[in-house]
Amino acid sequence: MKILLSILFFFVPACVLQSQVLKSIHVEEHDKYRYQDKPISKSQSKYKIDLRNTLNSNKLDKKFVGFHAYWAGEKYLNYRYDLLSDLIYFGFEIDSQDGSIANSRDFLNHPISDLCFSSNTKLHVAIILFGSDQIKSFLADDIKISNFRQQLHYYKNQKHFDGINIDFETLPAESSTDFVSFITQLKSEFPNTIISIDIPAVDWNSAYNFDELNDLCDFFFLMGYDYYWSGSENAGPVSPLFGAGLNIDNSIVRYQNKGIDKHKIVLGLPWYGRSWEVEDSSYQSKVIGKSAAYSYDYIMDLGLSSHYDMTYSSNQIVFKDADAYNEIWFDDSLAFSSKIQYSITNNLLGSGVWALHYQSIQSKLWTAIENIYVNVSVNDETQEKFEPINIEYYDVLGNEIINVEMYSNTLFFRVEIDSQNRRRVKGIYKN
């Protein structure tokens, strides 16, 4: 296994090796919107909530965890709470100077807690602190930590929440022991509260002591995205399931080798894509200009045809805008379904998304969750028959997928035949 990982590491693209200084989508979006809170004004809302989504008590066998970002405005009204086992309110900012909660993003007044309660969706608050120096300073100071805990107790007494999610990026190796101590104190002071930690696709700093954290945490939210990011040298999949270089599958393997309990992993997936200005129309072309993250809604509204890449289980769009080529990578409902199914077949705790408001007009990704978590029996998968390669495929909504290639000894589609003799994809499985 060590030899295999060494080989994998040798072939990691340079763009991924820069992950030590990577600015995650959490940090990127937080920096963009931190001074642009969107007030909640029901009278001006263009979003209409479907009460069926909140009056059903969800009883999902697997966790499905979604982040609600504070800048989402009233898009929270379009979330499918009946399909959400857990919602993480992003977030409470720690002031590293004194340990206080600098901003709770109007948590105490936000009606999202009522929607969670009515649907039996667990509500978590994300505790955010970004930057190695800031994290190190906070974790090393008992007074700062005491100030934080006192304020968190205040919020807990004012409004109920079920969980505390820790999003510290990037945790330095020298703070590993202090981090365990901090989580231990949280577990002790909030004994009936779900404790979760967000972890990057790769723990470059070897900062997480899973031998101790496994017993302290209820789950780890693995950020299965940012494999290609704003600083990448070439365009590529934000969230590759398999393929050359680092990908979700070998991220799971790496973390297992570090001692993580995989049954506590929630696989985080992107409801956003990324666009790069590139050199030409070649596959994964060299980046020559700006990059930006775009929501699933925005990318779908472009109306551009995409190529489904079986190697990565992701979608690619290449188009020319004025004199510049642009390359977009994102996940459609088929790509998203394949990764949810991966989490099921690999016995992870569940899956989740960053971030929920990126799909508020479209509904295909919610439908994909429903098809897998509600309508498809996981226990029957070994009894399913697999179709041969070189056939026409349809996604879970019946939309035809053109030019799909398949690695016959690596992946299989599970399909069913409908009344019109169309094959519908129900999931992807690793052989």
Shape: globular
How much beta, percentage-wise? 25-35%
Number of helices: 13
Low-confidence stretches: 1-20, 41-56, 376-398, 401-417, 421-431
Rounded to the nearest angstrom, the radius of gyration is 21 Å
Overall helicity: 25-40%
Report the end-to-end length measured between terminal Cα atoms.
19 Å
Q: Average pLDDT across residues?
A: 83
Which keywords apply here?
431 residues, alpha/beta, eight-stranded parallel β-barrel, five-stranded antiparallel β-sheet, 13 helices, 18 strands, 28% helix, 26% strand, disordered C terminus
What does this structure look like?
With 431 residues, this protein is of the alpha/beta class. 28% of the residues lie in helices and 26% in strands. The chain has 13 helices and 18 strands. The protein has helices at residues 2-10, 14-17, 25-33, 52-55, 112-119, 132-139, 142-158, 176-189, 210-216, 248-257, 296-301, 333-345, 364-375, and strands at residues 63-69, 86-94, 101-103, 122-130, 163-169, 194-199, 219-223, 265-270, 272-278, 287-295, 307-309, 314-321, 324-330, 350-354, 393-394, 400-401, 411-417, 423-430. An eight-stranded parallel barrel has the order 1-2-4-5-6-7-8-14, surrounded by four helices. Helix 12 packs parallel to helix 13 (364-375).
Q: Topology, pairings included?
A:
Blueprint: H1 2-10, H2 14-17, H3 25-33, H4 52-55, E1 63-69, E2 86-94, E3 101-103, H5 112-119, E4 122-130, H6 132-139, H7 142-158, E5 163-169, H8 176-189, E6 194-199, H9 210-216, E7 219-223, H10 248-257, E8 265-270, E9 272-278, E10 287-295, H11 296-301, E11 307-309, E12 314-321, E13 324-330, H12 333-345, E14 350-354, H13 364-375, E15 393-394, E16 400-401, E17 411-417, E18 423-430
Parallel strand pairs: 1-2, 1-14, 2-4, 4-5, 5-6, 6-7, 7-8, 8-14
Antiparallel strand pairs: 2-3, 9-10, 9-13, 11-12, 12-13, 15-16, 17-18
